[in-house]
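Weekly structure sync - notes
Attendees: PM, LS, DV (DV joined late)
Agenda: review two folding runs queued last week.

Item 1: First target. Sequence and structure tokens pasted below for the record.
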Amino acid sequence: MISFIVPYKEDNEERKSNLEFAKKYYSHLVPESEFILILQKDTETFFHKTRMYNEGAKKAKHNILCFLDCDTFVSSDSIHKSLTLAQEDNSVIVGYNGVAIYLTFKAKGELDKLTYEKLLAFLPEDFKPELNNSNDNYNVANTKAVGGCLIMNKQCFKDIGGYNPNFKNWGYEDTEIVKRACLLKKNVLSVNTKNPYLFHLPHDDDKAPRNAHAYYLDNEAEYYKITSMSHKEIKEYIKTWNL
């Protein structure tokens, strides 16, 4: 049915608890699914998210691939609609409507069991999906996001060259693969259902801004390099990745 591919580094207890929520949550949504956890190698000095996604895709036994972060959650409606849309070789599916809602530690502390209904309960009745709309429980971090839950079938993934292995850690990797898919004439579709949002659970992490890191600037340069290429140049560049 679907293979959930999750890159993971166990560097704090909050991230570990997020992963446990994700395992139970997605296996309940799609019982016929598999959950492929790719661990950071001890020899790696940075989190090589794109390599881990590519490694997971090779291990997947199902035709539909979902590239998932261990701390992101979309609704059952969104997953099942994405499953239908991803049957087409020409489609890359963002498994929500682009609105990424980041829950606070206060909100997470109230979760004993995670369901989408409980996540929605943290939003006020007059909730508006506007950037930086927030309270003590949540912050709308993005309204045009594409990462965290990206779905396509194996042929489509092969056609676009998989994830770009030149990215280090994270930052721009999802934006780049979506843009590259468009440049390679694939349809990129965002799912808009009754329950359309992506929720993100908090975890302790580096508090420095992403753009303070050299790898982020390198990733940014790689992204713009891709966007400047023609269809033919991208195809030739993908051949150098040795996936």
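Item 2: Second target, run right after the first with the same settings.
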Amino acid sequence: MPRNAEVIRQWSILRDLEASRRLTIDDMAARTGVTTRTIRRDLDALQEAGFPLYDETHDGKKYWLLEQRPFRRLDDTGFTVAEVSALYFSRTLVECLASTPFQEHVRGAFEKLAGALTPGMRQFLDRLPLAIQAKAVPGSRAAGRGRTLDPKQAAARSARVAQLLDAILHHRRVVMKYDSFSSGRLKEYSIEPHRLIFAQGGLYLMAFVPEYGAMRTFSADRVRSLSVTEERFEPQEIEGEAFAHSLGIHQGTPPERIEIDFDPQIARYVKERVWHDSQALEEREDGGVRLVLQVSNDRALRSWVLSFGPLARVMAPAELAAQIREEIERALKLYS
């Protein structure tokens, strides 16, 4: 069983208790698809973490309840468990602000929020961001802005995202109609959603497609409709960060050593930014700089290199240099 399956199930129990006010162990077992013995262990773990759970007997039945005002230090705000928890683990999305003037304010806000949680609660919630991640734009720690939607579109998109996150947390299969960019037509997929990723100003879904027997990435903006089924799936373990080896939002291409020489005119700009966690910089005698990366040779990398025009030259691998040259020649033909 994946390491995060247990905490996601326990998170579901907390949300169900808050929404239903009180549930029996049999109710919770039926909702999560596990045994009553497992539910008892989950309740013990949540109580040990500091969540205010207690039981009461009514008409001979034992019910479990969640205290309705669990965060006394935040009583003035009226925050619920779901709201405080969502705020706390949404820090995954704002980590992209790490190099902006908001850095200290963001850190301070989460420190205050964390102060209202017990150490056990924080440890529990620290594992929830496995379901949703953020990927910074290369060259910055700030994510770009997404396109503006009208209120109706925004509401529909928000509802779809909420459905997807719920399906991820509860391991439910989804039937989705998707406006495919590659084929230019509306396609229907049966998928097993694993993770939502905020990257380059957009929200993306990583899901296993049984038809293909592989993980695929979908843009949330291209989802036209979806329905969450009652059918459960066993989630797969996803190692590391999403799109970890790509400068963009591509998945699956193995990383390789990339060497690019930058002209002295732009060397300072290149040195001031973080393009990828693997980067290494080598000063050149002419005042330029060589950037060495361990990344995927994909469309995102080639587009990024081409964006520097004559100020960047690929030194290795030879295959990438040939691809860049071919792109430049194709562009020249458009202006000949």
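Discussion on item 2: The first helix runs from residue 5 to 20.
Action: LS to circulate a short write-up before next sync.
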